[in-house]
Amino acid sequence: MVTAPLYMVKNTPKTECNCHAPGQVVVNFVNFVNCRITQQSHAGSKLLLWSLLHVKVPAIYRVFRGGSQRMATYAIGDIQGCFLALQRLLDRIQFSASTDRLWFVGDLVNRGPESLAVLRFVKQLGSVAVTVLGNHDLHLLAIHTGCASLHRKDTLHEILEAPDREELLNWLRYQPLMHRDGGFVLVHAGLLPQWSLEQATGLAQEVEDALQSDDYHLHMPEIYRCPNTGWDDTLPAPTRLGVITNVLTRMRVCTKDGEMDFSFKGHPDRAPDGFSPWYQVPTHHPRPDSIIFGHWSALGVLVTEHHLAIDGGCVWDRALVGVRLEDRTVFQVSCSS
After folding, report:
1. What would the DSSP string read from start to end of 282-310?
2. What is the DSSP letter of 24?
């Protein structure tokens, strides 16, 4: 686990302990211990200090959000059927369904051993969880509708043979491709440099409308695997849906003009000539929100002011990653077999 320095209200001098201020995040525990504690200024502070010494890090975070437990939001990287790793990560962050929310970056299923368990678990979380669709999730829907076949390394058989298959897959196709809230954007792969956040939201909605329609199986061939690697605002409807999906669920690198290369899966330093990681290409519009994405295990974990990459390569025996959005603390659990 990577944390900020342990735990005290930021920039609070010793003589002005402000540790009960609502909504403030604690960042240096040593300073807190040094903070002047008096019965007159902080009734109950000694008890609070004793309590802090006996709880784990995520619990301390909740204590300092105004004296009562408030919601923390955790973004979770590509799970890909690694259910036990997900449970270990939720234990690590001390997840509470009554106070916390989970944002899943997509690719809930495939390649790992327990895709059915992951799908059932996330579905039953209800409004506690937000998940966006990834390329493996769409692959599952494509197989179900008959426009794709199982690949040799797929581990989707259990879902396709489950008694609750229709219920699970119907729920899955109603999940968004992009989620925007509270200064964050959640997407599986990335956004083109030409797109504003408002445009990207509208384009994602076009694909979501097709997936959620009664005849969605007719749209799946154009959504699932479109060969086009470039975007144009004038693209006709069938191709348009495919390219939007390619951007949101498959892109890793692109040119300054937004041309994409889907074959590249390596480290960003080895991108083909003329291509750069999409998040390094100058954007045509301001993007005040931070973009959370996965899909790129060779990139790994990257936390900057405007981007949070959280595919830790769990299915490749590396790590499942979670980030607490309120303070960008990173949590990881090993996925080694």
Report:
1. PPSS---SEEEE---TTT-EEE-SSEEEE
2. P
Three-state SS at 331: strand
The 10s digit of each residue's pLDDT in 231-255 is 999 999 889 999 999 999 999 999 9
Predicted local confidence at residue 337, as pLDDT: 63
Give the pLDDT of residue 3: 34
Residues 101, 130 contacting (CB under 8 angstroms) = yes
| Nearest partner of 9 among 23, 74, 78, judged by Cα | 23
Q: How confident is the model at residue 70 (pLDDT cuts 50, 70, 90)?
A: low
Residue 152 tokens read as 């040799």
According to DSSP, the β-strands at 319-324 and 329-334 are: antiparallel
The residue count for the chain: 337
Orientation of helix 216-224 relative to helix 197-211, angle to 10°: 130
What is d(CA 320, CA 165) in angstroms, rounded to the nearest whole number?
26
